[in-house]
């Protein structure tokens, strides 16, 4: 079975993990630029002031800023139809609240889009992907402040007008639902709580997180409406980190717990951005947790008028929940859940579940009935360079093959799936750990966890496998 004609095969990256050039040509610091390196066992630290002698992975990342022509040429060699990328907000507005944009930053993306057009690769642009300008964190505590909505819309207006003829597909926020979890407060919301020193420590303010999420909902809706006014051909979507959750048993307590996890981790954001209103379960959750969302009188109408055109999501693994607190938790899984005995796990303890992707696609399409994109899916693994210089990453091929097979099954089920952009198509910095050792790409980048390496690019075995997948439109796996 092939995918339908016009299906967008490609890959995905994020500026804060990929681009580098953190202080070049007028760019200001972002929240990501203030995060140190880390490992699987050592959390990344958040430093309000840069520390001399400390390694900050995003500062250079893998230097797409200096290698974009080479990188896009390699994507074209694979046959990419779409490249998901993000624009670094602080490259356009260095402090976030500047009155005028940074022209040098705008020119960089002019050049990137021109290069993509040369190879007929469609850009899918994330407007905000874990890189709130750090100036907004310092002055307003990021998205905790309603004022940041206006700064974001100014930024969107600049992008939409500048690139209205170069970009058709946009995502307003990356993994917006990460603000429903303490882990996402700083990365997704630019929120910095007193006493919070690492991404994973226990310092949290749920009231602030969900208020910030509401501000992002309003900003997203306003951006959708603005984008359609500037160019009616724009297609603007949401993006959710999908946490597919199974009940551990047929015990009704397990089933209700899994349903609640699905509602509060996944569906709250989809319902607001696709349907245009908060669902009833969210209102109950807020009441029970003592969370009071401060709304302006016009917010409900704004949400109704700013519904997205398509739904995109990341999918890496599935979770299992149980009402039995004594059961073993899944190692390495930042998102919680217990161990699933039916699944294997990655080097980082993430449970590998291709059939869960088919289940998720059907689950989403049944609920929303709008086009879907899988915009992140991939395997973080330790790659070994052989004596002949090759990288035989059959484990990555197996992972991707299994997930693409299940995508095809979902399409046969009737799901309107229009794109697949595998995550980290070129090796990049891990967002959660700050490592380079955790590699996703079809293309190896010569750089290690400490920032050493000449940044040279080398295709892996999976590069040639994916090239054939695209050439056959998914028929040959």
TrEMBL record:
The keyword Hydrolase applies. It comes from the Bacteria. One of its GO terms (biological process) is carbohydrate catabolic process. Residues 19-44 are annotated as: Disordered. GO terms for cellular component: cytosol. Keywords: Glycosidase, Hydrolase. Coiled coil: none annotated. Residues 29-41 have a biased composition (Polar residues). InterPro entries: GH, GH_1_N_CS, Glyco_hydro_1. It holds the Pfam family Glyco_hydro_1. One of its GO terms (molecular function) is beta-glucosidase activity. Belongs to the glycosyl hydrolase 1 family. This is Amygdalase. It comes from Paenibacillus silvae. The gene is bglA.
């Amino acid at each position: 079975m092939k995918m339908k004609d016009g299906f967008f095969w490609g890959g995905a990256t994020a500026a804060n993990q990929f681009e580098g050039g953190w202080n070049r040509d007028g760019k200001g610091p972002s929240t990501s630029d203030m995060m140190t390196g880390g490992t699987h066992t050592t959390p990344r630290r958040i430093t309000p002031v840069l520390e001399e002698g400390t390694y900050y992975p995003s500062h250079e990342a893998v230097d797409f800023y200096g290698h974009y022509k080479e990188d896009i040429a390699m994507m074209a060699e694979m046959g990419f139809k779409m490249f998901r990328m993000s624009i670094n907000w602080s490259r356009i507005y260095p402090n976030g609240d500047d009155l005028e944009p940074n022209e040098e930053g705008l020119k960089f993306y002019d050049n990137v889009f021109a290069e993509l057009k040369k190879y007929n690769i469609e850009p899918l642009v994330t407007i905000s992907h874990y890189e709130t300008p750090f100036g907004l964190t310092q002055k307003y505590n990021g998205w905790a402040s309603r004022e940041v909505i206006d700064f974001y819309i100014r930024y969107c207006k600049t992008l939409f007008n500048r690139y209205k003829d170069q970009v058709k597909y946009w995502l307003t926020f990356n993994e917006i639902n990460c603000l429903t979890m303490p882990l996402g407060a700083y990365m997704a919301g630019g929120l910095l709580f007193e006493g919070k020193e690492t991404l994973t420590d226990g310092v949290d303010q749920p009231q602030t997180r969900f208020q910030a999420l509401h501000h992002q909902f309003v900003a997203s809706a306003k951006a959708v409406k603005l984008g359609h006014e500037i160019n009616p051909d724009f297609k603007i979507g949401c993006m959710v980190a999908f946490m597919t959750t199974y009940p551990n048993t047929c015990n009704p307590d397990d089933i209700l717990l899994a349903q609640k996890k699905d509602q509060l981790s996944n569906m709250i954001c989809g319902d607001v951005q696709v349907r245009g209103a908060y669902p009833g379960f969210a209102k109950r959750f807020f009441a029970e947790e003592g969370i009071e969302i401060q709304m302006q009188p016009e917010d409900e109408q704004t949400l109704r008028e700013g519904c997205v055109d398509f739904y995109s999501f990341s999918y890496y693994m599935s979770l299992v929940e149980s009402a039995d607190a004594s059961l073993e938790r899944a190692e390495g899984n930042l998102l919680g859940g217990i161990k699933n005995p039916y699944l294997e796990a990655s080097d980082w303890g993430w449970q590998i579940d291709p059939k869960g992707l088919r289940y998720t696609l059907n689950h989403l399409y049944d609920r929303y009935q709008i086009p879907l994109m899988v915009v992140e899916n991939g395997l973080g693994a330790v790659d070994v360079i052989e004596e002949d210089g090759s990288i035989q990453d059959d484990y990555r091929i197996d992972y991707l093959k299994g997930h693409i097979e299940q995508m095809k099954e979902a399409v046969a089920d009737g799901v309107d799936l229009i794109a697949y952009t595998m995550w980290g198509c070129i090796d990049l910095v891990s967002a959660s750990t700050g490592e380079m050792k955790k590699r996703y790409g079809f293309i190896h980048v010569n750089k290690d966890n400490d920032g050493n390496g000449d940044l040279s690019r080398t295709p892996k075995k999976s590069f040639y496998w994916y090239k054939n997948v695209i050439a056959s439109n998914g028929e040959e796996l």
